[in-house]
Specification:
This protein is an all-alpha fold. It has 9 helices and no strands.
């Protein structure tokens, strides 16, 4: 899949109703080695900046998840792998921050504080007009896709 195809897929998945983390992570189900529905299940709690707490953007959480498949660090004795994984995560997060000004959900949404409720917003046309989340999903997917191409 090309960078542009992954960018489009992530945006489309968000517009279909998946949360930001799900949309980006599902775009890389092939890299994660899991079916899309399983990726959606695992990523479900990371939307809205982790359970709608408006902390780290779900798209950045998804990039971090995919980084674990790109440079696995599952051997506790392999400090070099952990270092390489963390370097990839930091590199992708830095690129996202440079492009968008932050990796924090509430800052990206222009909120002074979280809404204080776990209830997700209804996905109405007005919701999509005022939220940058679909575009942020595309941006995050593009960052990951370009990193994959570099590997």
């Amino acid at each position: 899949m090309t960078v542009q195809e992954r960018e489009k897929k992530a945006g489309d998945l968000f517009k279909a109703g998946y949360n930001c983390c799900q949309a980006v992570a599902m775009t890389f189900a092939d890299v994660l080695g899991l079916p899309e529905d399983e990726v959606a299940r695992l990523a479900s709690g990371f939307g809205g900046g982790m359970g709608r707490m408006r902390e780290v953007c779900g798209t950045v959480s998804a990039m971090t998840m995919v980084a674990g498949a790109m440079i696995p660090a599952n051997d506790v004795a392999d400090k070099a792998a952990k270092t390489a994984n963390y370097a990839l995560v930091q590199d992708m997060a830095d690129e996202f921050r440079r492009m968008n000004g932050s990796i924090i959900c509430r800052e990206l949404l222009g909120l002074s504080k979280p809404e204080g409720t776990p209830v997700p917003s209804d996905r109405t046309p007005e919701y999509y007009k005022k939220r940058p989340c679909g575009e942020l999903c595309s941006i995050a997917a593009g960052i990951v896709a370009r990193k994959l191409n570099e590997q």
